[in-house]
Amino acid sequence: MISRMTTKGQVTIPVEVRRRWGLEPHDEVMFIMLGNEVRLIPVKRVAEFTAGAFKHVEQPEMTREQKEKRWIEDAIGEEVEREGLPTKRRRTG
To answer: For residue 33, what is the DSSP state?
Structure first.
């Protein structure tokens, strides 16, 4: 199947493909580049494939000290946000 790209970079997904994969308006798709190919994968299919892949891990109850530290950190963050103060940015990489 062939589809032409518009000047805005948009491509129409053929109706046969939309029907087969159950794609509807506003659905999201993912583009994966593999060598000289680009694959289009419906995002809801990715969610189906990965559903349940990660086990829910029960978090232990926080200690009083941990709760206090969290409360203080949240309060400081809210104050910084409210006052528009500069924040330290962590280096990445």
So the answer is: E
CA distance 8 to 51: 34
Range of 19's domain? 15-50
For residue 65, being part of any structural domain is answered with: no
Q: What is the CA radius of gyration of the chain?
A: 23
Task: Reply yes or no on whether the pLDDT at 6 is more than 90.
Answer: yes
In a domain, 24, yes or no: yes
Q: What is the 8-class DSSP label of residue 5? A: B
Provide CB contacts within 8 A for 4, sequence distance 6+.
11
Q: How far apart are CA 22 and CA 29, in angstroms?
A: 12
- Greatest Cα pair distance, the chain, in angstroms, is 62
Q: What is the pLDDT of residues 60-80, one digit of tens each?
A: 888 888 888 888 877 777 777
Say if pTM beats, i.e. exceeds, 0.85.
Answer: no
